[in-house]
Amino acid sequence: MSVSASPASPSLVTAAPTQRDLLDFVRRSAEDHELIASLPLDPEGRTWVRLEGPGGSEAWLIGWPPGTGTGWHDHAESVGAFLTASGELRENSLTARLPADGWKTLELSEGVDCERTLSAGRGRAFGQHHVHEVLNESTSEHAISVHAYYPPLPQIRRYSRTGAVLRLETVERPEDWQ
């Protein structure tokens, strides 16, 4: 789905948006009840609507049916923020920064895993090369979230994980998402 929408509060950002700017944007957008209610929800798969993000950022309103998730991935050189507008999402992430290129398999050290639960109204910002997965673990309730990235996503690297071993599986570019 590729519909464009704008949150009720326009952005005043004129320079490249910071992580704080992106977090402020996703918070304002999540508080726009009309925007959140406009997202069509599908019981089988995630749905999304592209938003006008601040300062040329890429932004999305995403619906998460029960039991869905992203799998492990990063957003390359983009910084970002996301916030749960309704329902609850879990984020599993790595606290260690991984090398940007030149590897296919890494063995992760103990203590690099972080888990956070983001109920409605809670969100976070993150820096470049942030590796995470986002999940709606509910068995009965949709979740809705707002995401923003700057610069617009140049690529997404997708990973598989078995225990402490993280393996680069694919690299997706914007033309792959059209």
Give the helix/strand layout:
Layout: E1 4-5, H1 19-30, H2 33-37, E2 47-52, E3 58-64, E4 72-74, E5 79-86, E6 88-94, E7 105-107, E8 113-119, E9 123-126, E10 132-135, E11 143-150, E12 156-162, E13 165-172
How would you characterize this protein structure?
This protein has a single domain (4-177), classed as Jelly Rolls (Sandwich). It starts with a strand and ends in a 6-residue tail after the last strand. The relative contact order is 0.24. The longest helix is centred in the first third of the chain and has 12 residues, at 19-30. With 178 residues, the chain is mainly β. The protein has helices at 19-30, 33-37; strands spanning 4-5, 47-52, 58-64, 72-74, 79-86, 88-94, 105-107, 113-119, 123-126, 132-135, 143-150, 156-162, 165-172. It has two helices and 13 strands, in the order βααββββββββββββ.
- Poorly predicted runs of 5 or more residues: 1-6
- What Rg do the Cα atoms give? 16 Å
Helix percent reads: under 10%
Distance between the termini: 10 Å
Overview features:
mainly beta; Jelly Rolls; 6-stranded mixed sheet; 4-stranded antiparallel sheet; 2 helices
Give a quick rundown of the structure.
This protein is mostly beta strands and 178 residues long. It has helices spanning 19-30, 33-37; strands at 4-5, 47-52, 58-64, 72-74, 79-86, 88-94, 105-107, 113-119, 123-126, 132-135, 143-150, 156-162, 165-172. The strands form three sheets. The protein has a six-stranded mixed sheet with strand order 1-2-3-11-5-9, with helices on one face.
